[in-house]
TrEMBL record:
Intracellular or extracellular location(s): Cell membrane
Cellular-component GO terms for this entry: plasma membrane
Name of the featured protein: Branched-chain amino acid ABC transporter ATP-binding protein/permease
Residues annotated as domain ABC transporter: 8-253
Parent-record interval covered: 339 to 591 of 614
MF annotations from Gene Ontology: ATP binding; ATP hydrolysis activity; branched-chain amino acid transmembrane transporter activity
Entry keywords, A to Z: ATP-binding, Cell membrane, Membrane, Nucleotide-binding, Transmembrane, Transmembrane helix, Transport
Organism for this UniProt entry: Ramlibacter henchirensis
Amino acid sequence: PPRGELLLSVKGAVKRFGGLVAVNDVSFDVRAGEIVGLIGPNGAGKSTMFNLLTGTLPMTSGHVEFLGHDVTGLSQRAIALKGMARTFQHVKLRPHMSLLDNVALGAHGRTRAGMVSAGLRLDRREEAQIVAEAYKQLGRIGLAERAHELAGSLPLGTQRILEIARALAADPVLLVLDEPAAGLRRKEKHELGDLLRKLRSEGVTILIVEHDMDFVMRLVDRLVVMNFGSKLVEGEPAAVRADPAVQAAYLGG
Ligand code: ADP
Ligand code: MG
């Protein structure tokens, strides 16, 4: 999609867990070519919002539109097939498989819906295409030379980057990341930030859900701040950082 085109639109999202309103009437958009950060203190409702928009959890009310289609109520798999790729807060790589095979699984998820992981039966041409795509994505993150090492042997920061390559192998329109900087060392955070900026320059659109405010501040074009389930403010990083309500929320949380 051309730069600036509306990709994702969350409209009046509400999620109740019994009496608790975890997400309370939240609306925001993501446009092609930008990195948007969804931040907020612990318990603000970020993960719940992430799960609503990726189809992992059903909404109590509200809508999600993706690429002009109403995807409210669709499964995570159905939304993924439309071009929304996600990573998980806890790394979900296969540690005993090679880097190449891990990324190939991501490519395969898009090429043939419904058949994942072991026991695949692919013809040779299909297999060659998937391997080529996996090498291409490993090259993009600078790990092509280590294609045959085991994913489990990588440091956590590199595993996170490998997970992103796996998500990219499905050729998504939108990449949604759940706390990618959590647990990373300072140097690993820098490497991750550099990679995400590089991807943006290549036209990848990214929505990043993150607790680490310093990490997102240096990265994103726009921020949506949640607190107690509601959207507190939205805007450019400098304005958001200076906002007294945001400072109070972070200090209080
Ligand atoms: P954040 O990711 O911003 O830390 P969450 O979305 O995880 O916040 O949680 C928001 C609120 O919803 C919290 O009060 C949390 O305890 C509650 N919550 C989250 N998931 C569930 C669930 N499955 N059942 C009940 N309450 C939940
Ligand atoms: Mg969370």
